[in-house]
Amino acid sequence: MNNFIAAVLLALALQAAPAGAQTLWKDARYGMSPAEVQARFPQARVPGDADELAGGEIEGLRLQDVDLAGHRFTAAFFFDGDALAQVTLSLRAPREGRVDLQVFEDVTRALVARHGAPAHAGQQDEPFERRRREWEVDGTRLALVLFASGPESLVNVIHQVGPPDAPPPVRLESGG
């Protein structure tokens, strides 16, 4: 009986922290309600043109003018029901003069300085240019992605608990 109790206690001690305790970005933790996120980020607003991810998560709050590596991003807080599932920082950058690549490299340097070398990196040029860097940070996944198509590129920094999906979640165009 003592061996059984010891085994159960050992199993409980070795369990990973629940996902609800994992910080996605700044003070935003996985599983927070929209009200909790709003309390942590009072400038965040409910978007009039909310986006939806491929998995059905809905953008419940948006925070403009977020500084990252000297560039201005928009933070989108995506919820699965009433639970925060993902935070995505997005920036549209012109391809002319390859400003988009400069943004991508600036953010890469900032993330490497903070989290070390990426766990994975890749580049694809067909059917459109796509670059990707991924980190594993305290039980969460962080992906930096550049999508180049047309006159501008989308640079996303994706914070989520599971591995970033392939293809990575992107903000759907909603006319805004």
Automatic annotation (TrEMBL):
Highest taxon above the source species: Bacteria
Signal peptide region: 1-21
The UniProt keywords, alphabetically, are:
Signal
This chain belongs to which protein, by name?
Secreted protein
Q: Which organism is it from?
A: Pseudoxanthomonas kaohsiungensis
Traced from the root, the source organism's taxonomic lineage reads:
Bacteria, Pseudomonadati, Pseudomonadota, Gammaproteobacteria, Lysobacterales
